[in-house]
Write a structure and sequence with these properties.
mainly alpha; two-stranded antiparallel sheet; 2 strands
């Protein structure tokens, strides 16, 4: 399902390639492979060509609410860990995610207004809470947490990007190239770190918390789709 972009070239990674990606990025990649967005049935349903456009639009708005503002997870991590061996990787990731934010903003405007759904006030509160939780995580004083969060976002983003590209194609707008670091570059960065057990635990914690917030977002979006269908 995951689609990588390089210029105009794109392809779908099969399960073997996804497994290789998880191994190449070590334990953090394995966590993303097991618990990331690509493991969730609702994400796959949304990427199907029979998925209602209203559900796709709702997903785009949700992603924008959580990840569309600056500074984001990677920006916070760069500010905190920019002097570490991860500095170059973080700078590339921050530049790449700036492109993603522009793409999200364009796509959010293109898919139309937020779909009317029961429990809208509760949804808005949940999204604000998620955004706050991610900001707090990325600003953690515990070294390794913010970097683990940034790695989780970069490794999980291709699955989210596949959905965004599907929404773009259905809306008739161009899909921008994704410039985030590839798993091989992430693996090289992780391999250059002198990880103590404490830093390793901190990075895994940051990764797990980002994935938990992403799962919560997809669960919220799935519940909203079901609520609209039940009206």
């Amino acid at each position: 399902m995951i689609r990588w972009h390089h210029g105009r070239d794109s392809r779908i990674l099969n399960s073997a390639e996804r497994a290789s990606m998880a191994v190449s990025a070590g334990g953090l990649g394995s966590l993303v492979g097991l618990d990331g967005s690509d493991s969730l049935a609702h994400v796959h349903r949304l990427c199907g060509y029979q998925s209602p456009m209203v559900d796709l639009a709702d997903a785009v708005h949700g992603i924008c609410a959580v990840h569309g503002a600056h500074p984001g997870i990677v920006d916070h991590a760069l500010a905190r860990d920019g002097g570490s061996p991860a500095a170059e990787w973080l700078a590339r990731a921050a530049t790449g995610f700036a492109v993603e934010r522009t793409y999200i903003a364009t796509l959010t405007a293109s898919v139309g207004p937020l779909p009317s759904t029961p429990g809208q006030a509760e949804t808005e509160a949940a999204l604000v809470t998620q955004r706050h939780a991610l900001d707090m995580l990325a600003c953690s004083d515990r070294f390794g947490v913010s970097l683990g969060a940034a790695v989780a976002l970069v490794l999980d983003w291709p699955a989210i990007r596949t959905l965004l590209d599907h929404a773009a194609e259905r809306s008739g707008i161009a899909c921008d190239a994704m410039l985030l670091p590839r798993p091989a570059a992430t693996n090289a960065m992780l391999g250059a770190l002198a990880l103590t057990p404490a830093i390793d635990r901190a990075m895994k914690f940051g990764t797990q918390q980002v994935l938990a917030q992403h799962r919560a977002l997809w669960q919220l979006l799935e519940a909203r789709a079901e609520a609209r269908g039940a009206r």
